[in-house]
Amino acid sequence: METPLREPTFLILTALAGEPLHGYGLIAEVDRLSGGRVSLRPGTLYGALDRLVDAGLVRVDHEEIVEGRLRRYYQLTEPGGEVLATETERMRRNVDAATARLRAIKAAPRLSGGVA
Amino acid sequence: METPLREPTFLILTALAGEPLHGYGLIAEVDRLSGGRVSLRPGTLYGALDRLVDAGLVRVDHEEIVEGRLRRYYQLTEPGGEVLATETERMRRNVDAATARLRAIKAAPRLSGGVA
DNA sequence: AGCCAATATATCGGCTGCGAAGGTATGACG
DNA sequence: CGTCATACCTTCGCAGCCGATATATTGGCT
Description:
Two copies of one chain form a homodimer.
Chain A: H1 7-16, E1 21-22, H2 23-33, H3 42-54, E2 58-66, E3 69-76, H4 78-107
Antiparallel strand pairs in A: 1-3, 2-3
Helix pairs in contact in A: 1-2
Chain A binds a DNA duplex through helix 1, helix 3 and strand 3.
């Protein structure tokens, strides 16, 4: 697993931090928690899930058949929760650093397009 | 330019939001603002700078020779500042979503490794 | 004088993760 | 009986990062 986590992977872990979900449910949940801004594609989702399971951050919780269709539920593991917490902290620091500098820019713009 | 920005690219923009910097100065600044956690490699830095200049998010401010060595200073453009702001907002939302769910986990763990 | 470290730039190849596209199967609905 | 929605999975190309490597100059150490 590469770290820093990319956005799709990060959101998958975040979604699973709520409750175990199956593939399609995960897509829906990520859609919801991102306010519709991120729609996972199957290729992204299953690739990411395979990697996450390999790395032990997620595991298959159980499978069930609903209306003839298999649902494979994935669950966040404890290491998965730790990685999510660590990555969240990293991002928080980056966000804070950027926010501080952006505030300074607004106060006294120094960009190419600044007021002449 | 791919969006979401990857961490090195994001930090380069953040560093340049403070003041124009040259390559090596940028490496030092990113080192500092990341608390030593991120040390840019030349390959990462110059690749990213090329892409950022191509995309118009950063531009060459000026060049100067200090002690016989060329320093090429890069400056954040206005579009660059906007992208940085947008990306920061995106990350803030993701951080908030993850934080909320992580808090819930701590209160009532539901992970594989939870208390038996 | 001779050498190594630090400053400063740049390039190349491999790896990884994402995304677009496409594929299979089942049940529901008209 | 065809189409849509659900649900799984695979393959391929691309973009960005990183390690390694290269080149040039200044300065310090011996």
